[in-house]
Design brief:
single chain, about 90 residues, alpha+beta, two-stranded antiparallel sheet, 3 helices, about 35% helix
Amino acid sequence: MQRKIPMRQCMGCRERKPKKELVRVVRSPEGSVSMDLKGKAPGRGMYICPNPDCLKKAIRSRAISRSLEVEVPETLLQALTAELEARGNE
């Protein structure tokens, strides 16, 4: 019997993909926002494809702020963009 693969929705392109293919951004219980590269950090999370275009769509539509229910700092968005571009070059 095959194991069930957890699926999550990208906030940029709105496609459902396996959880392992996406990057998680999490708002901790204290209110700080950060990237969760292992996918295990506690708090409210949202997922984005490792594609800079999806991130641009999510930023433009303010989907990240709505999903995390907090205003996301510009420095985190820049760090997330850099991380996604680095993953794309692998």
